[in-house]
Each structure stands twice: as structure tokens, then as C-alpha cells.
Amino acid sequence: MRRRDDRTVKMPTFSETDLIIPALEVIAAHPDGIDTSELLSLLRRQLKPTGDDLEILAGRNDDKFSQKVRNLKSHDTLEKKGLAIFVDGRFHISGWSCGAAAASVVSPQQLRQLGEVHGHAVIVLGEPQYVRY
Predict the structure, then answer these.
(1) Cα–Cα dist 124/66, whole Å
(2) 52-61: which pairs have CB atoms within 8 A and are 24 or more residues apart?
(3) Helix, strand or coil, per DSSP, at residue 31
(4) DSSP code of 116?
(5) How far apart are CA 44 and CA 93, in angstroms?
(6) CB contact at 8 A, 105 and 93
(7) By the 8 A CB rule, do 18 and 43 touch?
(8) What is the average per-residue pLDDT within 34-59?
(9) CB-CB contact of 34 with 90 (8 Å)
(10) DSSP code for 103
């Protein structure tokens, strides 16, 4: 927390949901997949967590931010949404076919342009465009 004048201002924290799009950007940039430790390192560098996210968990050696990133795997968050798969200890962007059009791997640039619809990440696929949400 930082003090501004006579008020205490709480620093923003990331939720597990907040990490989905940045995690997919990182995973998409690693076509051979990425393990959880490397994903954590790159997300920490990119997002620069502050405040409560840096608080060390009781009885552990890691902080809250680390726990949230690791929860992406332990809760199977990305897999349950059909956004990534976890094979041989590594995350990979998932792909599938829809009729005659095969799904394409989503680039980091495409992910940055995507918003959220009804609280689920939107992934645009193939031609014509198909949307998974």
C-alpha cells in the first residue's frame, strides 16, 4: 500500500481471470510450449505485480502472484475454456477444426486485439471467422 496525503491507497492486484489473456499471449509466442515456471517468470516481467500480489504466502516461499499463475494449471483454467492444452509439462495454444475450416494458432497480436464477451476470452478462428467463447 502507498500513502497519498492522509489516505491509504490500495495497490491493484491481479485475479486469476486477469491473467488469462496475458498468459495466452506468452504461450502463443512459444510454439514449442512453455512450462509453468517460465510462464510465471515472463508474466512477472511483463505485468510487474505490486502490492498484495507480492505478499509471501504463509508457510510458503512464493507470493500471491506466483500462486495465481500456478492456479492457471492447478485449476485447469485455460484447458476448461478450450484455450490451451498442457502436455508433457508445457502449455500450448489449443487448436481444433470447425467444419471445413481448420483452426489457426492465435498470434500474440491477435490476442491483444481481442476483448471479452460475457466474461469469457474470445478467440477468433480460421476463415470464415469462428468465435469460441
Answers:
(1) 29
(2) 52/10, 52/11, 52/13, 53/13, 53/14
(3) coil
(4) E
(5) 20
(6) yes
(7) no
(8) 96
(9) yes
(10) P
pTM summary value: 0.66
CA angle 29, 31, 35 (to 5 degrees): 85
| CA distance linking residue 132 with residue 120, whole number of Å | 9
3-class DSSP string for 53-96: HHCECCCCCCEHHHHHHHHHHHCCHHHHCCCEEEECCEEEECCC
**Phi, psi dihedral angles at 78 (to 5 degrees):** -70, -35
pLDDT in tens, 79-113: 988 889 999 999 998 764 333 232 344 444 544 44
Q: At residue 6, does pLDDT exceed 60?
A: no
